[in-house]
RNA sequence: GCCGAUGUGGCGAAAUGGCAGACGCAACGGACUUAAAAUCCGUUCCUGCGAAAAGCGGGGUAUGGGUUCGAAUCCCAUCAUCGGCACCA
């Protein structure tokens, strides 16, 4: 069945008449409750379930319902032919509020053919260097098989309004779209069907693209990119090489080429390195999962158990940039909440590292603490069970217990380990350490509440002033020593706040802050410790045992001993490294990536084999905003000039507005910032940050106020909405629902309301003649505006302009409704006012406003018009209504001249008979006068 | 447990120190129509006095306090919902 708009020709003519029949056909076939071939009559209930997306009483579906009944009773073969072949005799009553089904495809074709939203780069034809640039970007989607849902176009509509608005304001606007197309679903599908992921991806992209085009977005499609395109991932691999070939120089606080490193082994400091790290291994799926793919200790897909297991993995040294990633948030116009989320994720904490001597051993145990001032209260040490020193220090008699505990811990998942919040567990190692502050002998334990991955993997237990240590000490009967005196009345034991140091000879009487500084200096002098900063952020696990991702541009070469292999980067001329074709995408089950099955591909040379891991899905999205600046470049990941222009400007971030969901608040946005900083340090890009202004759109819930999901059956498909109400109504409704950043439920009735508004705009200028054809209304005339019309027009210009700037699209639409309501009753419709109004409406409803612009035979294209300005003088009235309050309560109002002085206002208010009645016999204590607004009389 | 956001009619919301509920939905009434749809007009927070209408009054923005001439808006506490983090030393 041909979808409307899917064929280049003839779609305008065909679309209208058979539409309802087509809907009926589609509904009937899409529903399993309707046995078409058998011709069994259907019940009203079944019909209602077919059409239950809109309530049965809504006009369109009830008409549909009656049509279905008629068809069903009269001739069952109505459903046996493709509906578009049937010339439905009843289609004459198929009245749309306005002919959006003809207007919208028409303008989409015009925009496409004339390429009017193409933004030329400097040096190209039509590039106007006098205009300022504006880069407005959406988070590009993963083109899933399910197609677009109504959540996607929410942010996309917002950015489209901004893009269209900014063009009219005289900016060169970069507004591109692309596909984040590497990823698990296409690969899973390949495993099931044997269909190559590239094929699935191509199909899904085509579907997404046609859906987006149908909404009328003004993307520059010439700049479309796809992360799975070799012409794109060649440069993803190239950037990886830059990272691999760099190190972080702590002296300059920058990434530098590895050749500037003076140490012996550069492999120790590269920003991309190989390490054995514990990963989320899912035996059932036969693959490693990213942290975000693990929910409550189980795989997000399938709910299979996930275990921690050490594996050899590629890592990126993002932790080197932790400090800058925190500090440089400052200059960005991001929601404070998102900045906070990133800061918390990075988790910087200041403190000290302290060395504890082990009794009868040479080794020392280094612990990290944020409270060095509590050192005197340290009555035991705890090591993470996996800590490497455990083997060394554990005593003979404690060995069996320690080994058993370690085994038990290893078997636990992270979830189980965290679950045991109530009962602390642990085992004494038999060894003792010496507290450097008071030289006391303290026992060394191991416990799973100490994590190997944070700090040094060891802590000094200060039970008096740390909840966890207190719990542990109570359970195992360890001594508790108070060393901080609270300033309030609370008991000292269990007090974790700042107070006054006690029982601590060196720092007694000092505040916690002073004590921290003094004890750190004291330790430093004696070589027993130093100030230190720690981060929760870990290095980025960058390899995946999957097929559908970017292969690493790395080979492993045999060493002289024939045993060990050493990684080496490929030369940039050898890019792209394209994944081999595979028959079988299935995971091997051993943790070896599927690429290992491509034996020929792996063999790079006699001595060297290719890396078989692939990059995670984040890789492609880490730099796509850069590629959009210059997507055709085959010499460089982005041309220098193009990058400078589109990513330039006075602020630290390049993209002027970036809109997307909060789900990427941490990972994508952090990873992209990290890559950008590396490229910046190496001199490849001109700004330290990728995204200047960030806005998160809120989630759209189903009509039942629940999250949209297949299982709940409350998913709204944009195609269905556009089919019924048109793309302009869809766009406007998405914006009218409420504030962009807020979570809000969908309502089909609401869409209807917006469709009515757009139809009123249409009928304001168009009327239907005898023959049922739309023609320009005779009411539209070249007449002067009344004073009231002048005022409302300028108020509308002001409000819509301001609201677009602040992304308050819902109230902008409200104001346009007020405008239309006011003009609906007018006898003649002033052309000049409508001309201005159409420009204001254009970013929201581009098809409708373009068509009306053309119908009124206004000069040029609406998209080329300059944005209107407003004149404050039309907004000011001679008289204003002044509210009179008595003790803050409104008692009356009066009209006063705009020029009335405070004294005049006061006198008029006091003279008001109603007010006089109310204040009779009372003494006026005070009057508050707000010019042009109110008078408040206090008695 | 910690951090953050939010809380206003039957519903989506507006107002960010000055007339609470703009605009839209829904409901009800009216006009047009043979009828329906569509369209247009009107009404709709709660409550007291009045037979009713007009009119006059009281209360109301999660709850309880506070600041202010004046609070949905600012401050404190509590509750609820949503999101993030979660033994991070």
Summarize this structure as a short list of keywords or feature phrases.
disordered N terminus; four-stranded parallel β-sheet; RNA-binding; seven-stranded mixed β-sheet; 30 helices; globular; 18% strand
Write a concise synopsis of the structure shown.
The protein is α/β, with parallel strands linked by helices and 939 residues long.
Question: How would you describe this structure to a colleague?
Answer:
By secondary structure, this protein is an alpha/beta fold. 35% of the residues lie in helices and 18% in strands. It contains 30 helices and 38 strands. A hairpin with a 4-residue loop joins strand 5 and strand 6. The chain is globular and about 100 Å long. The protein starts with 10 loop residues before the first helix and ends with a strand. The chain binds one RNA strand of 89 nucleotides through helix 4, helix 11, strand 13, strand 17 and helix 15.
């Amino acid at each position: 069945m041909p979808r409307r708009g899917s064929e280049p020709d003839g779609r305008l003519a065909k679309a209208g008449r058979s539409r309802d029949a087509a809907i009926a056909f589609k509904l009937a076939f899409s529903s399993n409750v309707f046995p078409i071939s058998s011709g069994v009559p259907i019940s009203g209930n079944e019909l209602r379930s077919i059409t239950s997306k809109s309530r049965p009483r809504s006009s369109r579906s009830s008409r549909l319902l009656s049509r279905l009944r008629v068809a069903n009773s009269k001739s069952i073969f109505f459903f046996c032919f493709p509906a578009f072949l049937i010339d439905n005799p009843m289609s004459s009553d198929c009245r749309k509020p306005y002919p959006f089904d003809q207007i919208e495809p028409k303008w989409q074709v015009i925009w496409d053919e004339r390429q009017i939203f193409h933004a030329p780069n400097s040096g190209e034809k039509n590039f106007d260097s006098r205009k300022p640039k504006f880069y407005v970007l959406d988070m590009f989607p993963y083109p899933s098989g399910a197609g677009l849902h109504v959540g996607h176009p929410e942010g996309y509509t917002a950015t489209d309004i901004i893009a269209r608005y900014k063009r009219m304001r005289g900016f060169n606007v970069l507004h591109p779209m692309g596909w984040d197309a590497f990823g698990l679903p296409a690969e899973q599908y390949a495993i099931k069907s044997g269909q190559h992921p590239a094929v699935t991806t191509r199909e899904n992209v085509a579907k997404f693209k046609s859906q987006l085009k149908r909404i009328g977005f003004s993307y520059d499609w010439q700049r479309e990119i796809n992360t799975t395109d070799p012409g794109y991932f060649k440069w993803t691999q190239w950037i990886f090489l830059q990272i691999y070939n760099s190190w972080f120089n702590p002296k300059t606080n920058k990434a530098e080429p590895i050749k500037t490193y003076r140490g012996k082994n550069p492999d120790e400091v590269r920003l991309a390195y190989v390490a054995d790290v514990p990963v989320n291994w899912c035996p059932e799926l036969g693959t490693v999962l990213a942290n975000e793919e693990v929910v409550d200790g189980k795989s997000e897909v399938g709910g299979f158990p996930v275990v921690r297991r050490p594996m050899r993995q590629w890592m990126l040294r993002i932790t080197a940039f932790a400090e800058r990633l925190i500090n440089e948030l400052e200059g960005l116009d991001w929601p404070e909440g998102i900045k906070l989320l990133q800061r918390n994720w990075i988790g910087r904490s200041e403190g000290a590292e302290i060395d504890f001597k082990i009794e009868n051993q040479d080794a020392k145990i280094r612990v990290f603490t944020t409270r060095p001032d509590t050192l005197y209260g340290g009555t035991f040490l705890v090591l993470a069970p996996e800590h490497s020193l455990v083997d060394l220090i554990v005593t003979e008699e404690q060995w069996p217990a320690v080994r058993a505990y370690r085994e038990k811990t290893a078997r636990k998942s992270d979830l189980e380990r965290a679950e045991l919040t109530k009962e602390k567990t642990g085992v004494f190692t038999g060894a003792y350490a010496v507290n450097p502050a008071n030289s006391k002998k303290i026992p060394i334990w191991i416990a799973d509440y100490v994590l190997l991955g944070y700090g040094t993997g060891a802590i000094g237990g200060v039970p008096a002033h740390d909840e966890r240590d207190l719990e542990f000490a109570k359970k195992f009967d360890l001594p508790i020593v108070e060393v901080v005196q609270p300033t309030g009345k609370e008991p000292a034991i269990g007090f974790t706040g700042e107070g006054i140091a006690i029982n601590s000879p060196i720092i007694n009487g000092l505040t916690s802050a002073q004590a921290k500084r003094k004890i750190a200096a004291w330790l430093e002098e004696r070589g027993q410790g130093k100030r230190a900063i720690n981060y929760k952020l870990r290095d980025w696990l960058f390899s995946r045992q999957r097929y559908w991702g970017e292969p690493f541009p790395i080979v492993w070469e045999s060493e002289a001993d024939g045993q060990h292999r050493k990684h080496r980067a490929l030369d940039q001329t050898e890019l792209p490294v394209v994944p081999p074709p595979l028959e079988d995408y299935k995971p091997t089950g051993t943790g070896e990536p599927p690429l290992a099955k491509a034996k020929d591909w792996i063999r790079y040379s006699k001595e060297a084999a290719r890396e078989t891991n692939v990059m995670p899905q984040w890789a492609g999205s880490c730099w796509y905003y850069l590629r959009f600046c210059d997507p055709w470049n085959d010499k460089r990941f982005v041309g220098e000039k193009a990058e400078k222009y589109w990513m330039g400007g006075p602020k630290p971030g390049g993209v002027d507005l970036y809109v997307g969901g909060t789900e990427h608040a941490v990972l994508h946005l952090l990873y992209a910032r990290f890559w950008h900083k590396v490229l910046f340090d190496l001199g490849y890009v001109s700004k330290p940050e990728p995204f200047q202004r960030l806005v998160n759109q809120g989630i759209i819930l189903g009509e039942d106020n629940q999250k949209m999901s297949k299982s709940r059956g409350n998913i709204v498909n944009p195609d269905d909405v556009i089919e019924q109400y048109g793309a302009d109504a869809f766009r406007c409704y998405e914006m009218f629902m409420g504030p962009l950043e807020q979570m809000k439920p969908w309502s089909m009735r609401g869409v209807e309301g917006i469709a009515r508004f757009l139809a009123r705009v249409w009928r304001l200028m168009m009327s239907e003649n005898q023959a049922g054809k739309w023609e320009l209304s005779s009411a539209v005339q070249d007449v002067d505006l009344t004073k009231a019309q002048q005022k409302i027009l300028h108020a509308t210009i002001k409000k819509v302009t301001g609201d677009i700037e602040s992304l308050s699209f819902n109230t902008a639409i409200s104001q346009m409704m007020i405008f239309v309501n006011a003009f609906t009753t007018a006898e003649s419709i002033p052309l000049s006012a409508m001309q201005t109004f159409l420009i204001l409406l254009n970013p929201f409803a581009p098809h409708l406003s373009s068509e009306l612009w053309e119908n009124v035979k206004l000069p040029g294209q609406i998209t080329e018009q300059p944005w209107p300005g407003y004149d404050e003088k039309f907004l000011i009235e001679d008289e204003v209504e002044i509210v009179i309050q008595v003790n803050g309560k409104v008692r009356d109002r009066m009209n006063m001249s705009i020029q009335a002085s405070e004294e005049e206002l006061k006198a008029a208010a006091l003279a008001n008979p109603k007010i006089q009645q109310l204040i009779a016999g009372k003494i006026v204590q005070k009057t508050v006068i707000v010019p042009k607004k109110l008078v408040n009389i206090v008695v």
